[in-house]
Design brief:
The protein has helices at about 1-5, 20-30, 35-50, 60-85, 100-120, 125-140, 150-170, 180-185, 185-205, 210-235, 240-245, 250-265, 275-315. The protein is mainly alpha-helical. The protein has one domain.
């Protein structure tokens, strides 16, 4: 959200014609990088999808796909409808924030095929193959700064290793004896990952290396960091506020640009940089939470019920 809508306007009024001002702006401007955050999302997604099936070799295909398609698709369809009258482009899957959701749908579709392959070959070999395919895909547009030049057909392939790392994470054994010492380092990991995301953003804007080259490498320390987060949550408990916010983070992802556009149409007076930003950010968060209550949460419940009913129907036939 901050990458698209702007972080706190700390550098407004800064003289960028001077070297010091330019450096400060460069440092601050790369602190909130949207694409690295999406890569973290991919790893978490792979983890969440595979964790319930981590001890299984197969999955009930139709109930699984129905649940996942509805879970993603219902809020997505409503967001696209809301975006149209506000002139926010969400229709081009490869050239908007929806590229990651198109990739997600492809990963869900492939997952029932991946389970038996994992049983036979293991995740490490599958991840290795995915990295090889991703490298070949990047070579088709080696100068690309973002994922959009690769189009719908190759975007998902480049990010595929990241999603598979999440599946691998779901099967990692956690050592209880080392849990306390690992959990104490969680803030070091958080700071390190944020620093790496900043480095990747700087490289994207100030070097020939775009995100397609760096993100699959960035996913490897993200894998290690999320393992530390899991251990820390087991040792110290989860933060209730962030747990609650996590429930509607998908709505923030879908709605933040729509809400920003709607806010711009309100015609509010200028209250100054700081207050303008605070009012806008509050509006975006409230709109996102309203979307969650009215659209995402009911859609999520519907997806669960539909999956359960379909699974029961298949069991009854059997």
């Amino acid at each position: 959200m901050f990458a698209h809508c702007g972080p706190f306007p700390l550098t407004e009024g800064l003289d960028r014609s001077r070297t010091v001002g330019l450096v400060v702006q460069g440092v601050y401007g790369n602190l909130f990088a949207g694409v690295p955050a999406v890569i973290v999302f991919f790893v978490i997604s792979g983890f969440c999808v595979h964790y319930p099936q981590r001890n299984a070799s197969t999955v009930a295909v139709l109930p699984f796909l129905l649940r996942r398609y509805l879970r993603i698709g219902i809020p997505l369809a409503v967001a696209v409808l809301l975006a149209a009258p506000l002139n926010v482009s969400l229709s081009l899957f490869h050239n908007s924030i929806l590229w990651s959701l198109a990739a997600e749908l492809i990963y869900y579709t492939l997952y029932p095929l991946l389970l038996p392959l994992r049983t036979r070959f293991g995740w490490d070999k599958l991840i290795g193959v995915a990295y090889l395919l991703a490298g070949c895909a990047v070579l088709t547009e080696p100068g690309a700064k973002d994922y959009s030049p690769f189009g719908f057909k190759l975007n998902w392939m480049i990010a595929f290793p990241c999603w598979l790392l999440g599946c691998r994470l779901a099967e990692v054994e956690l050592n209880p004896a080392a849990a306390q010492s690992i959990a104490r380092r969680v803030w070091q990991w958080r700071g390190g990952i944020w620093f790496l995301s900043w480095v990747c953003s700087v490289l994207r804007f100030h070097s020939p290396l775009g995100y397609p080259w760096t993100m699959d490498l960035f996913a490897l320390p993200v894998f290690c960091w999320l393992r530390v987060e899991i251990i820390a949550a087991r040792v110290n408990g989860a933060n209730p506020l962030l747990e609650w916010a996590g429930q509607w983070s998908y709505s923030i992802y879908l709605v933040h640009m729509i809400a920003q556009s709607g806010f711009g149409m309100l015609g509010l007076p200028n209250f100054g940089f700081n207050l303008n930003w605070l009012i806008m950010t509050t509006f975006i968060l409230l709109a996102s939470y309203a979307f969650y209550l009215l659209v995402e949460r009911p859609g999520h419940l519907l997806a669960r019920r539909a999956g359960i009913l379909l699974k029961r129907g298949e069991a009854a036939k059997a």
